[in-house]
Amino acid sequence: MRGCIVVAWLLLGERISVVALLHNSPGITLGERWSALAQHRKRREAGETPVQRVMSAEEASASRRTGERLRRLEKAARREDRIEALLVLERDGASSSSPAEQAELAGLLRARESFEEQYDASSFTPEHVDFKRQHNEAFASLALRCHNNGDGGYSGGKFPNVFYLDGPDAATTTALVKRGFPLASCFVANRHASTVEILRGILPSENVAHATAAEALTSGAQGGFAELEFAAYYFDGCGGFAPHVVGMMRAALLRPGVRRTLSVAVGFSLTGGRSMIERELVICRALSEIAGIMGMRTRHAMDDPARYEMPRDILKTEGKTFTTWMLLEEDK
Predict the structure, then answer these.
(1) Among 64, 130, 171, 285, which residue has the least CB neighbours within 10 Å?
(2) Where does the UniProt annotation place the signal sequence (predicted)?
(3) How far is the C-alpha of 189 from the C-alpha of 280, rounded, in Å?
(4) Residue 317 pLDDT > 70, yes or no?
């Protein structure tokens, strides 16, 4: 089932609205979603505070992400093993491969292709290329500012670690390197094996996680970055699903036991063209809630790009793509 189901009911005269987001998560059944709703109700009845609810939700999500990633990787490995076995039969001659096996091979190859990278920078218009360039510049500038605790200008020393999503063109990595960032400070996640292979040819292999952003930042994830401190995050290429972006932010910012910088930059993109204002509002409010838990407050960096050494003519939208930047600072 795609999309979402909004479930509302009355309990003791109180109207309680719960949104259950059913979004093609492998291994997550409708029954498990209803179980989560029941747990949510119990926590409300137990008097759990808003902060406790957010932290409990993130703990449950972290456990689910770890299982989802493992299942996806295991399924992909089994698929590749079976494809190889069927290709051996096909190479041995048609007589070695039955019609059923040939059909199975065709289906497995289609399944493999559906998980290949769909990001194609060669199709971008010149305006979109410039839009991406501006936001990669903003990412670098904000990361350096946060690394220097907001004093403006880079004063030398160690470059900060940054986390982001990158495509096969490695455009964000290239932009960071041009600003002086060492490859060792750049950490990337991508769930497409073909793109991971390309990025590992540029960055240190251990800096590229074959995972979603949330999975790579979850404690206990093999090959992830849950123990690292980052000055800035760029969740580009997130699609149009606001809860997906919120999940990435919670995974990144509510990790237990990780020392954080005094200020943190967070950028995110949305696509789709419709209801982007409402979706931005949902994400920014969720980020403000996360910041409050961290003892921080949010600031819209794009309200004053010159102050933060971002391109002065930077835009929030280009075509059907929306990108913005938020700063999390100590709430003094």
Answers:
(1) 285
(2) 1-20
(3) 23
(4) yes
DSSP 213: H
Q: How many whole angstroms separate alpha carbon 194 and alpha carbon 232?
A: 26
Neighbouring residues of 170: CB distance < 8 A, sequence distance ≥ 6: 198, 199, 202
Cα 145 to its chain centre, rounded Å, is 22
Q: What is the full DSSP assignment across 241-294?
A: -HHHHHHHHHHHHS-TT----SEEEEEEEEESSSSHHHHHHHHHHHHHHHHHHT
A 10 A CB-CB count for 61 gives: 17
Question: Can you tell me the mean pLDDT for 273-298?
Answer: 90
Query: Cα–Cα distance between 111 and 108 in angstroms, integer?
Result: 5
Rounded CA-CA distance 114/108 in Å is 10
Is residue 287 within 8 Å of 298, Cβ to Cβ?
A: yes
Classify strands 263-271 and 321-330 as parallel, antiparallel or unpaired. Answer: antiparallel
Q: What is the DSSP letter of 158?
A: P
- Which parts of the chain are beta strand (E)? 4-11, 14-21, 162-165, 186-190, 208-210, 232-235, 263-271, 296-300, 317-318, 321-330
Report which of 191, 186, 182 is spatially closest to residue 172, judged by C-alpha positions.
186
How much is the average pLDDT of 86-112?
Answer: 68
pLDDT-derived band at 44 (thresholds 50, 70, 90) equals: low
The two structure tokens encoding residue 236: 């580009």
The first and second tokens of residue 203, run together, are: 């960055």
- Same domain assignment for residues 108 and 129: no
> How many other β-carbons are positioned within 10 Å of the β-carbon of residue 4?
13
Instruction: For the full predicted model, state whether its pTM sits above 0.70.
Output: no
Residue with tokens 């969740």: 235
290: its two tokens? 């996360």
Amino acid at 239: G
In a domain, 56, yes or no: no
| Residue 24 scores a pLDDT above 80 | no
Token reading at 209: 């996680």
Q: Which domain holds residue 258?
A: 124-330
Name the maximum alpha-carbon separation found in the chain. 76
Which one-letter DSSP state was computed for residue 203? Answer: S
Together in a domain, 142 and 253: yes
